[in-house]
Amino acid sequence: xxxxxxxxxxxxxxxxxxxxxxxRKVFGPSSGSSAEKYNVATQLLIGGVTxxxxxxxxxxxxxxxxxxxxxxxxxxxxxxxxxxxxxxWNLVQRDMNKxxxxxxxxxxxxxxSPEVKSRVDxxxxxxxxxxxxxxxxxxxxxxxxxx
Length: 147
Description:
With 147 residues, the chain is mostly helical. The protein is built from six helices and no strands. Keywords: Membrane, Mitochondrion, Mitochondrion outer membrane, Nucleus, Phosphoprotein, Transcription, Transcription regulation, Transmembrane, Transmembrane helix.
């Protein structure tokens, strides 16, 4: 009776996923460049429609946020003026100066971690592979912001 020796291949998933772009990890192996899947007109249409929707929503949310911040500041000024609250503006100014100094300090280092750099490189590669789709999205986004 002979002993049967089976051989198994070991797949290191950590190493395997390090060398794959993020969009392939999310959407699967068939998610290559959209240029491989669609013609130029379809890419422009998809990019334009999604860009317009994104720009339109971005514009509406931006207006809502500006109204909320402006209204909040206006109510704060009214409450301060009528005496309901007392704002220590010197303390606010001092805290703002501290925040500015911290931002200057962090921006001086200007060292980007390798993980962030690799993600940025992946996004740039994706955008280069999908130039038509990206152009359509940018144009649609600007139209959405204007409408």
